[in-house]
UniProtKB/TrEMBL annotation:
It holds the Pfam family ABC2_membrane_2. This is ABC transporter permease subunit. It comes from the Bacteria. It comes from Hyphobacterium lacteum. It is found in: Cell membrane. The chain crosses the membrane at residues 56-78, 99-122, 134-153, 165-186, 224-243. Keywords: Cell membrane, Membrane, Transmembrane, Transmembrane helix. It is a multi-pass membrane protein.
Length: 250
């Protein structure tokens, strides 16, 4: 079993071809490029703020990613099972860790392309005024990390699921829980029945709370470590689950 860049790149190119030789990636990017501004203009009241920034976009971006990233992640392993290609993929002279990481990297690349598709809004605010472009860049960086976290969790659940539909539902639910963990609605509800340390731990795990720092243009090392840790755990869990199912003969 080969480990390292050659095996990773071989699977990465395979995954990218799978995305871009079909309409899937194009449809996803187009849907994201339409939905994100729609949220900012119609719900975030972009023009009513009278400010040259992208705060309305980033305020609703986590909720949009919460739905679209599971849709991107659900095919990672479940589709391989549906098509009967999982055994062929796992028989290649490539380590399972390289396969899992390459699958994640390819999906994350597509997610990055979707975020880039919203850059016309960034250009527009520069025509309308003088925004803090560094703060906007930091917010985009945070959105990229947030998208990666949802993707990693979604791909782990795809590895555990027997179908893409099940994977999508479970991933969307997990993303919802990860997003809402630190909201007052959740913490106030739990504070009456759960120990204080548990409530604090749940609030600490909130992806929305972590992303809010990036929205303010602040890059905090704990927040970066949080997102990278979720990504590492998700990718590792997906590979372990697939390895376990292979050993069990599934």
């Amino acid at each position: 079993m080969s480990v390292g860049a050659p095996g990773f790149m071989a699977v990465y190119r395979r995954e990218m071809r799978a995305w871009f030789t079909t309409p899937l990636a194009y449809i996803f990017v187009a849907a994201f490029a339409f939905a994100a501004p729609a949220f900012a203009f119609n719900i975030g009241r972009f023009f009513d703020t009278n400010r040259a920034d992208l705060a309305p976009l980033f305020a609703y971006l986590p909720w949009l990613l919460m739905i679209l990233m599971p849709a991107l992640a659900m095919r990672a392993w479940a589709e391989e099972r549906d098509r009967g290609t999982l055994e062929v993929l796992l028989s290649l002279p490539v380590s399972l860790s390289s396969v899992a990481l390459a699958k994640f990297a390819a999906a994350w690349t597509v997610a990055g392309g979707a975020l880039i598709a919203t850059f016309p809004m960034w250009v527009a605010v520069n025509f309308l005024g003088q925004p803090d472009n560094l703060a906007i860049a930091i917010a985009y960086f945070g959105a990229f990390l947030l998208a990666g976290s949802y993707l990693a969790v979604g791909q782990a659940l795809s590895a555990a699921s027997g179908s893409q539909v099940t994977a999508f539902v479970l991933s969307a639910l997990a993303a919802l829980l990860l997003t809402m963990a630190g909201l007052p609605l959740v913490t106030d509800t739990l504070s009456g029945s759960a120990p204080a340390f548990l409530v604090e731990a749940i609030a600490y795990a909130s992806a929305l709370e972590r992303f809010s720092a990036f929205e303010r243009g602040v890059v905090g090392l704990p927040d970066v470590v949080y997102f990278l840790s979720v990504i590492a755990l998700g990718v590792s869990a997906g590979g372990l689950l697939i390895g376990t199912s292979r050993e069990a003969g599934r």
